[in-house]
Amino acid sequence: MIVTKKRATTKPIRNALRDTAHSQTVISYFRTPQQEQTMDKKIILHIPHSSTNIPLSEGYLVDFITLEKEILKLTDWYTDDLFYSKDDEMIVAEFSRIFCDPERFTDDSQEVMAQYGMGVLYEKSDNGEEIRTVTPELKEKILKSYYWKHHHKFSQAVQNHLDFYGKAVIIDCHSYPSQPLKRDLDKNPKRPDFNIGTDSFHTTKELIDISVSFFEKAGYTLGIDWPYSGSIVPIEHYHKNKNVSTIMLEINRALYLNEPSNQKSENYNQVKQIVSEYIKAIKNSL
Questions:
Q1: 121 within domain boundaries
Q2: For residue 5, what pLDDT is reported?
Q3: 172 with 249: CB under 8 angstroms?
Q4: Distances (CA, A) of 33 to 12, 36, 88, 244
Q5: Looking at the predicted structure, is the pLDDT value of residue 41 above 90?
Q6: pLDDT reading at 216 higher than 50
Q7: Which of 2, 42, 111, 285 makes an SS bond possible with 105, Cβ 3.0 to 4.6 Å?
Q8: If you average pLDDT over residues 279-286, what whole number do you get?
């Protein structure tokens, strides 16, 4: 379970490696200071909402065309590519948030979006239409087979970083539509280009300051905990371990899509480069 996210419509809840040009003609069991520095700058990229996969049709009350429309609206399109870094560890959900949202609490009494039928297993669309009936048996089945497996991977990655590096740094990777969703609590239509989400315990002032400076220099507007707030942390470390740091980065989809479609715009590669440079800026601060 996660704690510091309130994604999508709330006041804002919410693995891989890059080669270097070193010769490989000699095998060495010792790392240079430069290699040590690179190793110490490995981070975790959590990407929960990029998939469009619906693994099970059980419980759904609407046809696939209706589901496709909801997927188009709610998917964080191409964030698995926009945030791609082969230098770092990527934890990517392999199922659509329409099927199971890994950034929702499993307990509806703790999940603010459950009141809209959009808890961990969405039963209603953004427009309020009933799209699925979830029985206790179906919920248990999906949580066991999908939700908890995803969180186990995420928690294990964080623990591995703590064991190996003594710290773990997470970037929670998202995008958002340029206009508020029906269920968004923040209805302000004037949304920034980028949005960082923070946690009072796990997000350092340095991470915030670096983000503000980076996007200001790059010429983009930035919202801090607006229009979405928070950033994911495994429950076992939540407000317990200062060695686990987290910050969320959200991208306004108008920057890289021809909304309301999911067609990439001519600015796509430019936005991808900006995200890559932001990741490097965060790593260089560690």
A1: no
A2: 40
A3: yes
A4: 40, 5, 19, 24
A5: no
A6: yes
A7: 111
A8: 94
Question: Which pairs count as long-range contacts for 58-62, CB under 8 Å and 24+ apart, including other chains?
Answer: 58/138, 59/132, 59/133, 59/134, 59/135, 59/138, 60/131, 60/132, 61/130, 61/131, 61/132, 61/133, 62/129, 62/131, 62/132
What domain count does the chain have? 1
Query: Is residue 105 classed exposed, middle or buried when 0-12, 13-18 and 19+ CB atoms within 10 A define those classes?
Result: buried
Locate the DSSP E strands across 177-272. Answer: 194-197, 222-224, 244-252
DSSP conformational letter for 147: I
Q: Is the pLDDT of residue 21 over 70?
A: no
Does residue 101 fall inside a structural domain?
Answer: no
Q: What is the CATH number of the domain that holds 275?
A: 3.40.630.40
Task: Work out the number of other CB atoms within 10 angstroms of the CB of residue 54.
Answer: 16
Q: Is residue 144 scored above 80 in pLDDT? A: yes
Residue 19: predicted pLDDT: 28
According to DSSP, the β-strands at 89-92 and 222-224 are: unpaired
Q: Which two structure tokens, joined as six digits, stand for 97?
A: 């948030």
Does 10 fall in a domain? no
**182-206, pLDDT tens digit by residue?**
988 889 999 999 999 999 999 999 9
pLDDT tens readout for residues 55-85: 999 999 999 999 999 999 999 999 999 999 9
Residue 64 lies in a domain: no
